[in-house]
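DM from R.C. (forwarded with permission)

"hey, sorry to bug you on a friday — could you get me a structure for this? deadline for the figure draft is monday and I only need the backbone to look sensible"
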Amino acid sequence: EFNRRWCLEAGALIVLMSDRQASPGKHSFDAGCAWGYLALEAHAMGLATHAMGGFSAEAAREVLRLPEHLEPEVVIAVGWRGDAAALPDDLREREVPTPRKPLAEVLSAGPVATGG
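My reply, with the result:
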């Protein structure tokens, strides 16, 4: 229900699917790579994207009449960025840049430490 509000003004909704038969064991990884490049290309074109994992995969299967080997992974709203002031308060608060962790926190040149 929450994610529907991101979709109201979108120019397009994309259901990104993976094919379990074409790439068994790595189909979700392949779909993630496709999503990443879609987001980069959309940004280069001046478009905004919003990926949503909170959707009913079963409803997507039914509406799109998907065969069993296709897995709906995510729904992506694509469109021209609107004025954030037009968003409801709770969504507008989320439309700010988020700080990124320093590389030293997310990369390791050696074994990954465990515990504390």
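R.C.: lifesaver. The first helix runs from residue 4 to 7.
me: no worries. The radius of gyration is 17 Å.
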